[in-house]
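Before anything else, study the sequence and fold tokens given here and see whether the fold suits the sequence. Record follows:
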Amino acid sequence: MKRLLTTFALTTIMMGSAAENYIIQTDQPRQTIQHFGASDAWSMQNIGTWEEEQEQARIADWLFSLEYDDKGQPRGIGLSLWRFNLGAGSSEQGREAQISRGTRTECFLQADGSYDWTKQAGQRKFLRMAKERGVPHFLAFLNSPPVFFTQNGLATNTGRGGTLNLKDDCYDDFARFMATAMKGVKEHDGIHFDYLCPVNEPDGHWNWQGPKQEGSPATNREIARLARETSQALQQQGVTTQVLVPESSDLRCLLGIYKTDWQRGNTISTFFSKDSTTTYLGDIPQVPRLILGHSYWTNTPVPYMKKVREELRDACRKYGIKFWQSEICIMSNDEEIGGGGGYDFTMKTALYVARVIHHDLKYADAESWSWWRACGGDYKDGLIRVWDREHRAQDSKLLWAMGNYSRFVRPGAVRYEVSGEEDPYGLMVTAYQNKDRRWVVVAINYSNEQQVLTLKMSDGKQYRWKAYRTSDEEGENLKPIEENDGRMKLSARSITTFVEK
């Protein structure tokens, strides 16, 4: 017996480390996962008009497909939410827009008050391609009101201050535009938008100074007024889309005042405390008890990443609301992977982002998680790298790493607590039960060494598992690997998803 134990110990050391036990606490459910998503900004307005339909289809398959190839490998990451950038009309203004050409957008609304439903054709093609491939949920978001309604006649703020770039007598006009757009896209493209976000990053301290992109700050009082007007406009037109706020630029603005002032901070308490009589949104039709924020800037240092998310979770519980992480990419402060500049096809960025997903889901109880851009250029902001002039695209380990979650953790899944060692530079494990009652476990091995993982259930049940791995090895993009009984060697610098058989 002693010899057998010694042999096992030696084998374990050769495999990389002692086995780590993780127990899924089947009596400790946490949040319900609604979806995983990405946005069409700003690339799909070009990609959707390429003549190379085969390349378009390949991109759509990577993003949306739930199919498998003849070797059992997923063809895509199965996004369950697609974010559509509803344009403000900077594209029609050309250079006068004071916005970089690549980030201008078209607008359905015309200067004479009519609607042109040929606009945003490329983006709308990808809306349809997403639906054809089974994407169940759609969200429309705006960076600016249409230029006809803004105070400066532009879709960018140009440093005009921290208030909403919207004429005071145009709140109802803006709301009617959004309701009409929701109705029009459904009539012309067959897409029902589940959600609508009227403002994006209204608390950003940079104030969207041009020339760069569409955007506008907004005070909490302005957001509350706009949410009420939008709710009323949707009801008047018989549109059931829900209104979501505020797509905060920084989680810290949801909790307090961060690089702004009292008018644009303390968002959770401002909108969902009944004491906030002028801004309370908890009783507005089609405005759910839900807060949206972006995980930019809060991912380092690593201990702080956990701390701020726990604070956010506790604040949401206090006010009885849910949290969605609705946008993130790599920024300059993400120094561990060299900041945002230069595209990275490797696991370096993929693992870093997987760690953020893990923290947002486990510690902030995020019910939805979205990456920023589906496709991008030479910057760490796209799941897919595109060369627009050449009309070609290439997938990345980041894409497939997100797929370890999005492809297998489906809408309606419930996250359960997992007990075991948590190491942001080693093993990180989360567990979910889909609506079909099948378990899914995602295990991140951030370390440079192979690790041994053992999965157990607190109720004593035992399962066989299929496993899918993403790593820097060629071809390991959600690659199906050997079935197992919950004990498995995890490759160095890899993400492995276990799916109950």
